[in-house]
Amino acid sequence: MKISVIIPVYNTKEYLKECIDSILNQTIDLFEVIIVDDGSTDGSLELINQYAESHSNIRVISQKNCGPGAARNIGLKISKGEYIYFIDSDDILEKNALEYCYNLASKNKLDMLTFEADILGNIEGENIEQYMFHKKIDRIGEVLNGVDFIEENYYKVSLLNIPFTIYLRDFLIKNTLFFLEQTMYEDVDFYHKIIRCNPKMEIIDNIFYHRRYRQNSIMTSKVTETSIMNKINIYESVITNSSDKLMKLYYMIGIRGIRKALQECKKNKISLEKKYIYEILKFIKSIDINICNLSILLDMQFCFYYVDDNLKKEEEYNNKIYTYIHDTIGNLHLISQLYDEYQVIGIYGNSDDCKLYLDIIRKTLGDFKCKFIYIQTRTNELEKKNNIYNIKELNNIYMDAIIIGSVFFEDQIKDQIKKYARLSMTIYSLKNDLGYYKL
Asked: Glycosyltransferase 2-like domain location, by residue (predicted)?
């Protein structure tokens, strides 16, 4: 058996036929399809059973609703394929995907191989690009190990999505790599556990997967206290279970995940119960700040701001973080420019990370005196009145320096700045020049 395809299903009858057909039409031979119905109530199980009656390579498992993690685990345990592939039951796979991936993975003796995806469907007003697997990573098409990959690309891509990857079954079983059950964001935990085991891997840019963007899916579901705490617990697990080699990196990823979850709380006006806030505080305090870099310290500081807003406590420990941040940023040349009233500083790509970086420096060292100008790719007349300018206008605007405000698109932004800006302008990178995200 070359590949076992595992499909967890929960109330996706409307899209299920397209998904199953895209698997049955694969060009590869010697593969099985394990469909795990996770307590569907919309007729999905009946449709699955109809397929099983006419296709001998389909195996059906029916269970009470336990979540996608449990469904995938059951499929993995009974699978017989050399490689494992998990697909979401509302999505579609290109018909040559499994044959191409299996042949390449077998040839290079890979533990995992990841391909590219696009979006199927749209919701008006949403930026669907944020849900796509990000192609801006290094060493596409090269065989590498997982630790090297994450150390090189941790700030460019949050995780390699489960349905975009085939896995060597023996690698998963040997390392006891199963999904967490009865929780959301189990894929985040699964991905980091795999990378911690240093798989031999390859990433290709073939678009084989079509991910459906729809309302009422996990991907687009409403943010709640439960979902926030699920996410925080997952990132706490990433930190707690990090290996010695990846400790600082997993601290950075984990604390950043917790920080972003708390930002979601503020954005969606969700008030966490005090018991949860105390749990978060206890966990943050358990981290040894002596081994933290600036990125971790800034994210920890944001978490303490959230705690202070809700509990008005922990001032002593908070001051320790202030001291470490003050000492870390104090020798950066940019800081003197921020506190010089004659300096004009531009920011291009004003992302959450840049806002956090500047906000905590301001709260640590006092209000800035420089003038800020904001640069965007596209602007309108109203935005110009608020010091927001188009990138093409850079050469007509006086600035002493410009900060690349997005780590994610840093290379593209730098190219754009160099194309339109004066050569004498100093360009600061959050990662390379300002110490944010540096290991």
From this structure: 4-118
